[in-house]
Every structure is written in structure tokens, then in C-alpha cells.
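Me: Here is a favour to ask of a fellow structure person. Could you put it straight underneath, so I can go through it closely?

Assistant:
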Amino acid sequence: MLFCPTCANLLVISSDTGYNKWACNTCPYEFPITKQMTTRTRLKRKEVDDVLGGDEAWAHADQTQASCDKCNHDRAYFYQLQIRSADEPMTTFYRCTNCTHQWREN
């Protein structure tokens, strides 16, 4: 993108006179295109944040009695989050202390 040096509006490509030029729609400024004008900008991708905390969420989680479906162990870590609207109950996330299988309720 190029901008007009006199009025700061965006320049558009025009070929009214038979040759390509950058032209301002507001003022009479014109800039002839004599060579190929390209630039390429690589954007840096943002790292995705783990909104539920990942493995660190389980570091200080409390334990409770909950039966694991995978290994039938009777202890699990748990924490609760409000992931739906305020009038819905909280969702409880569990992680087995024996096999690290994860599940949720609600």
C-alpha cells in the first residue's frame, strides 16, 4: 500500500492514460509505475495459549473419590470451571491419580 504524500489518502492503480500509475482519488497526484513493485511480509504466528492450564492446572489440584472408567482406580484430581452461562452448573474436570486418564462431568 502506498499513500499520497500531499493528502495522505490511499493510492490506487490507474491505467486511464495507457500506462500504469499510482493515482490519488482526492488530489491530482500521480506516480508512474516503471518497474515491478512487490513486497512480501511474513507474519509471525502467535503461540496458542492453553486456556485450561495444561499440565500445570493439575499441579495443585485437590483429590477426591471418583472412579476412573479406564483402570477402576478410586482416586482422582479435580478442578471446576464455569464454561457455560452463569445459570448452568460448573463443569468438573477429573484426572485419575493412577493412569492420568481425564474426563469431565456436566
